[in-house]
TrEMBL record, chain A:
InterPro entries: PaaB, PaaB_sf. It comes from Geodermatophilus saharensis. This is Ring-1,2-phenylacetyl-CoA epoxidase subunit PaaB. It holds the Pfam family PaaB. Residues 1-27 are annotated as: Disordered.
TrEMBL record, chain B:
GO terms for biological process: phenylacetate catabolic process. One of its GO terms (molecular function) is phenylacetyl-CoA 1,2-epoxidase activity. One of its GO terms (cellular component) is cytosol. It comes from the Bacteria. It comes from Geodermatophilus saharensis. Gene3D superfamilies: 1.20.1260.10. InterPro entries: Aromatic_CoA_ox/epox, Ferritin-like, Ferritin-like_SF, PaaA, PaaA_PaaC. SUPFAM superfamilies: Ferritin-like (SSF47240). It holds the Pfam family PaaA_PaaC. This is Ring-1,2-phenylacetyl-CoA epoxidase subunit PaaA.
């Protein structure tokens, strides 16, 4: 039996057979609620950190929804939301030429310099 | 940083063989795959399916316990249950968010769930007959979910792993509130103790089925293990769950409904009876007691509340300031 079932999904076994489609398809439902990325400052003294995304009709509703979805247990003291479409990103590739120049400037790191062990406070 | 709308590799990327090589090296080094990385189509599809079905399970999972929100016996219990059900919604949202980083569309995934083209965990197709079921779901169902979910915090796909860390932090509250509820009932009347035992009798076997078919009948697992999106085998996790749960049952004073359940001193683990996989198959293919109700209610939530989402969008469009238009 069940050559088409797996428990990978965390909450228990679900079918994975060919009848279960995974291709994204255009749908009309909620098409006009844009995607927002959410950033939360965990506490004073820390940077805002990306925590996930959500859909909301406008900026204000996005902040309210972000509070409900991402800070139910004092996880934050401040929330930023920004439309995903407004984010400009570098390529994530580690071998991206954008980051290559910093790779060969080893003299920018303190470990580049040999200082005798007996020099204090260095 | 993940930018879900930008998850496709740029044009003019290197040939597939070298991309595959780099992907394999990232997996082998136990580094995380991030949304805009190149990934094999099978990896992406498997993850979309897995994350979507996990998200659907969280959302449908609100219903069995939600049925007791108005009948919870005190304000304290009601507040706890409300917080728990709200968490399940939150878990669904974290997971849909992760699925979207792979190019899936949230509304489309919901449509597929409602049309029966994507599934959710079979465990939610059983009814919650008494209030003791709320406690047993927290203890056994969420306990089994924790066994499944903790290893997923190390999933090779970054957004899924991060969502799971968030989920696991909250599951502990779910399990503990359930167990405490059961301890309270077990300290009550004979009738209350009988209710707890009855709920345990009904939920024990379905909880064991949550781990999926036995390893020798689980052909998808090998590829998922190789990809780092499954970390332990079904039987391994099931065994871990049984070993963790038996002493908890003893402390509670309930009997697990399995005459073959014994401690195997030599093996250092419990042995347990055969699981009725025919029942599992029936429930998962739509013949469980509650399948139709669960999906019908999700459909009603989408359709009956459509006017709210439309009104909010209309309001946003009318007041659009900084952004021209509202289409993403």
């Amino acid at each position: 039996m069940s050559t088409d079932v797996t428990a990978e999904g965390g909450h228990g076994a679900v079918p994975t057979g060919p009848e279960v489609p995974v291709e994204p398809k255009a749908s009309t439902a909620r098409r006009d609620w844009p995607l927002y990325e959410v950033f939360v400052r965990g506490k004073r003294g820390l940077n805002h950190v990306h925590v996930g995304s959500l859909h909301a009709p406008d900026d204000e509703m996005a902040v309210h929804a972000a509070r409900d979805v991402y800070t139910r247990r004092n996880e934050g003291v401040s929330i930023w939301v920004v439309r995903a479409a407004d984010i400009t990103a570098s390529s994530p590739d580690e071998k991206d030429p954008m980051f290559a120049p910093s790779g060969d400037k080893v003299y920018r790191h303190p470990t580049f310099y040999d200082i005798p062990e007996d020099v204090p406070h260095m | 940083m993940s930018a879900p709308t930008l998850d496709r590799p740029a044009a003019g990327t290197p040939d597939e063989a070298s991309l595959q090589e780099r992907f394999d090296a990232t997996i082998a080094a136990e580094h995380r795959i991030e949304p805009r990385d190149w990934m094999p189509e099978g990896y992406r599809k498997t993850l979309v399916r897995q994350i979507a079905q996990h998200a659907h399970s969280e959302i449908i999972g609100m219903q069995p316990e939600g049925d007791w929100l108005l009948a919870a016996p005190s304000l304290r219990r009601k507040a706890i249950l409300l917080a728990k059900v709200q968490d399940e919604a939150g878990h669904g949202m974290y997971l849909y968010s992760a699925a979207e980083t792979l190019g899936a569309d949230r509304a489309d995934l919901t449509d597929k769930l409602i049309e029966g083209r994507q599934k959710y965990s079979s465990i939610f197709n059983y009814p919650t007959l008494t209030y003791a079921d709320v406690g047993v779901i927290g203890w056994l169902v969420d306990g089994a979910a924790i066994c499944n979910q903790v290893p997923l915090c190390r999933s090779s796909y970054g957004p899924y792993a991060r969502a799971m860390i968030r989920v696991c932090k909250e599951e502990s509250f779910h399990q503990r509130q359930g167990y405490e509820l059961l301890m309270t009932m077990m300290g009550g009347t004979d009738e209350q103790r009988a209710m707890v035992q009855d709920a345990v009798d009904r939920w024990w076997w379905p909880s064991l089925m949550m781990f999926g078919p036995p390893d020798d009948d689980s052909p998808n697992s090998a590829q998922s293990m190789a990809w780092g999106i499954k970390r332990h085998s079904n039987d391994e996790l099931r065994q871990r769950f049984v070993d963790m749960t038996v002493p908890q049952a003893e402390f509670l004073g309930v009997t697990l409904p399995d005459p073959d359940l014994v401690w195997d001193e030599a093996a250092g683990r419990h042995r347990f009876g055969a699981i009725d996989w025919a029942e599992f198959k029936r429930v998962i293919s739509g013949e469980g007691p509650m399948n139709a109700v669960r999906v019908a209610r999700r459909r009603a939530a989408r359709d009956d509340n459509a006017w709210v989402t439309e009104a909010a969008a209309a309001h946003a469009a009318k007041h659009a300031g900084g952004h021209a238009g509202s289409a993403a």
